[in-house]
C-alpha cells in the first residue's frame, strides 16, 4: 500500500482516482449474448450456461424439492443468523414506508403522491467464490415490503447444476419462489427480454462481474430500469489518534477481500497510525485464505496523511466513497460534514461488515464516485412515486386564470383552452 | 384520429405502441459535439452556437443587467401568475422533505438515513417555439429546497442573443443566477465536462429535443446522472358516460400541441362520447394557432372503445402513460387501481394543464412507458440518501456473532475478522 504524505489540493484528483475499467472489450463480448437471448430465448440460455458454467441443468427453474432440501442443509446456527439479519433489515426498510400526505396547495386544489410497487422485478445474485445469500436479503426484503407482484431471481448454477443451499434458504424465508439457475450476461438478457421459461421484468437489481455490469448498462439503454451503475467495491476510513490500528487494518482488509479491483483508503492525521496499520495488515493478512485477491486490491490502495480532520473530510467528500468509516474522537460534528458517501459507519465498534450483513442498512451502494448523485438501494428502489391531483369547480375558478396567463405566455393555446372550456361551463351553470 | 373498437387483449400491445424513435442517426450527430466540447471547451460552444442558434452572444453568461431588465419586461399579470405557481409548487415539494428517523434494529445498533443535496446540478431549459419558464419552476424550486449549492442553468439564445424575459424572471425569483446562453447537445456537454465558463455538474435535468435527449443519454453512460430517460409527451384519458366531450377534446388537444411526435389516447366505454369528442376536436382545432403540430400528433393517436371501465384501467396500466386523466363517475375506486402512470388528474375540473403549470405537482414525468419503473422529478431527484449506523460495544456483542456466522458461510474471512478483533478487545477489557 502506497503512503501519500500531506498531498496539496491540486493533487487530490489524481490520488483518489479509481482503478480504470476496460468496458469496451467486455461490451463486444456481451452484445452478442444479449442478441442471442432476445432471438433464441431458452435455447441461447442453455448454450451459454453450458459454455460458461460448464453444466446443463435439467431445468432452469429451481424446484420445490430443491428448496425444501436447502432448509435441511443449512445449519441451525446459520439459519438463526440469517433470521436475525432478516429481522433487522426488514425493520430498517419497513421504516422507509412513506405515508400519503394530501397537500392543499390552494383552496380546492389537492395534490398528493403515492408510492406504488414496481410490478415485475428481477434480482441477480452472483455465483463465483462466495455464495452471496446476504444479497438475497438486501434485494429480496425491500422488494417484498414494496409489494412487487412478480419477483424473479437468477443466480448461476455450480458445476453440478445446483444452487448453494444458503441462497435457496434465504430466498425461501423471504418468500421468493421463482428462482432460475442462470448467471452472467445471459441472465440479465433473460430478465430483460423474457424467454419461454424466464419472465421479463421492468427493473433489474444486483451486483455481478464485469459482464453482468455491462449487460445491465446495455439493457438500461433500452428502457429497462436498473438499480444503479456499478463499479468495484471500496471503503475509505477517516481516523484520528483515537482509532485502533487493529480495527482499521481489519476493515481495510475486509473491503480488499471483495475483489482484485477493490480499493481501500485510509485518511488520517496520525503518522503513528499509518505505521501501526501497515504492521497490523501484514499480521492479519497471514491469516486470510483470500490473500492473493487482497494483495492485488491493496496495490490499488493508499494510506494518506493529512494536516487535520477537516481536510480529511473534504478529501473523502471528493472521493465519494461507497463505504465510509469514521473512527474519530469527536464524530458527531464530523458526521454532519459528510456530503458524499454511500453508507457511513460511525465509531470504533461499527465495522463495515455489520452493514454488509446484518445491522439493517442496505449493502447495495453506489461505487466509483457515483455517491455524489446516486443513493443506495432502499425501499424506494422497488417503487415509483405517482403524483395525483384533484381540483374542485371552485378551485379551478381560483387557479384557472393563473394557468391561462402562463399558457398564453408560453404560446400554448390548447393548454389555455382546456381551462377556458371548463370555466365557461362553470359560469354558464351559475346563470 | 383512428377509432379502435373493443380490441381483444392480444392486440393491446400493438395498439398502445408508441411512435418509433430513430436515435441512431441523432447519436452520430451528437457524439462529435460531445467530443469537441470536451476537448475545446468554450471554443466549441461558440462554434455550435453560431451554427445552430445563428448567433454569437457577447458573453455566454447572462449578466445582472439582463436579469434586472427582465423584471421590467414581464407583465404584472404574468408575474403574479408565476408567483402563485411558485407558491404552490414550493408548498408541494417542501412537503416531500423527509425527516431523519433513527431506527434501533437491535439493542445498541442504530441505523438511519439522511437526505443530502446533490452539490452541483444543471438545469436545461429548451428554447424553440415556446419560452418554457414553467420548466424553470419545476426544476429550480426542488433544487433550491434540496439545498443544492451550485445550480447552473443553460438555455439557448434567440436570434438576437437574448433569453426570453419570462425565463430570466422566473430564474430570478427562484434564486438561480448562473444562467448560460447555450442550448442543444453542446449545453449538455458543457455541463457534463465543464468549460472555462460553464462549470461541470453532477446531475443534469430537463427536457429537450432529440439532440438534447440523446446527449443526456450518452453522458449518463459516462457516470453523470440524469433526471430520467425521455421520449415524446403523452396523455391517456379514461372516461365514462359522465365525461364532457368538450373537456376531453381540450385535454387531448393540449397534449397534442406539445409536438408532432406527441401521442394522445382516449379510452372509453361510450360510443357517443367518441363521436362527440371527434366533433369537439374539429371545432376547437380551428381556433388553435399550432394546428399543424396538433394534426401530426393526432395521427399518432387513438380513440379506443372498451367493454367496461375495469378493462380501460387495465389497458391504461399497460400503456403506463406520462399523464393520465380520469373522468369517471366513480373515480375513487378507480384511482386505487392505477399502478402505472406518471401523474394522475382526477375529475372533470382537473385539466392536465393545471399540473403543467401551477397546481403544485412536477411536470417532469416519465414518458414512453418508463412510468412502469420510474418516478417523475421530485425533491428526491435533487438529493441522495445516505445511510448511517452506529453500534455500541454492547450492541456489537449482540450482533457480532451473527455477522461472524454469515461471513464465515460466505467465505469472507476478513469480514469476520473485522468483528473478531473488536469483540476480543471488548472481552480483554472486561478482564
Instruction: Supply Rg of chain A.
Output: 26 Å
The greatest inter-chain interface is formed by: A-B, 130 and 130 residues
Q: Oligomeric state of the chains?
A: homodimer
CATH architecture of the largest domain in chain A: 3-Layer(aba) Sandwich
Specify the overall morphology of chain A.
Answer: globular
Helix proportion range of chain A = 40-55%
Total helices of chain A: the number is 17
Q: What characterizes the major β-sheet of chain A?
A: 6 strands, parallel
Give the beta-strand count of chain A.
14
**Low-pLDDT regions of chain A:** none
Task: Provide mean pLDDT of chain A, rounded.
Answer: 95
CATH fold topology of the largest domain in chain A: Rossmann fold
Strand numbers in spatial order across the main sheet of chain A: 1-11-10-9-12-13
Share of β-strand residues of chain A = 15-25%
- The CATH homologous superfamily of the largest domain in chain A corresponds to Nitrogenase molybdenum iron protein domain
The end-to-end distance of chain A, rounded to whole angstroms, is 84 Å
Question: Please, how many domains of chain A?
Answer: 3
Computed structural class of chain A: alpha/beta
Can you tell me the CATH class of the largest domain in chain A?
Alpha Beta
Task: Provide a quick synopsis of the model.
Two copies of one chain form a homodimer. The first copy, chain A, is built from 17 helices and 14 strands. The first copy, chain A, has 431 residues and is α/β, with parallel strands linked by helices.
